[in-house]
Amino acid sequence: MSKQEINIVIIGAGNVATHLGKALVQGNNKIIQVYNRTLEKAHLLGELLSCPFTDQVSLIDATADLYLVAVSDRAIAEVATQIAFLNQHEKLVVHTSGSTPSKVLEGQFQRFGVFYPLQSFSLDQAVDFLKIPICLYASKKEDKILLQKLALSISHQVYEMDDEQRNALHVAAVFVNNFSNHLYYLMDELLREEGLPFSLLHPLIEATAQKLKTHSPAQAQTGPALRGDLPTIERHLAFLSQKEPALLSELYIMMTESIHPALLKEKNK
Fold first, then answer.
1. Less packed terminus of the chain by CB within 10 Å, N or C?
2. Handedness of CA 248, 265, 177, 200 (dihedral sign)
3. What is the model's pTM?
């Protein structure tokens, strides 16, 4: 099966569906329909991808080779039940979630899998899909081959992994993306109180990200905790003890102890 012969129906019209749909079209794949429970969103994505659209489950095209379920994690099981009729046509149905097990589809479909792009998507921010890892799983060997071909049409990084591996990857992604961004938010608030712009940290953030392309996280680690610099740590904690939320001091201690487990324990003996 060539890339051009893969006909796809996208289920969903949010951030993932939009970015993935655009990338698939650019990769010379054919989107034959968009389904979304909200007609306006289905219409917008259908027009963007130049394909038919619907908000009626009964009108979902049953002739596609692949059905991409790109909805929120909590909605996957419900959507799978709604489109279970596709199993009568022996269709391949995959979801795009990082943390949801593939088995959420197993009860409804004989052919099922996962097509997970490892990235955080925003509608107003362009992404280069060639650099985005695509994580694959398929219940059948022939479907794995199809998903690999599809993934390689849009990305240079394609990985096969099971549910447990993908969940571990998603946990790691939450730490390095969601949690780190929350730390940025907390520091933005702290600096605002001192009349300083968060943009002062941009070069440091960018340099750290660049360093991680050539060094392991262990090699890239710096700072007072690594050096065992107790005077600096004590000054930091004295400053944070006067700040809200109180959680800042707790986070600082927790991270310091994680980097240098013996440091504060020795101090407190």
1. C
2. positive
3. 0.89
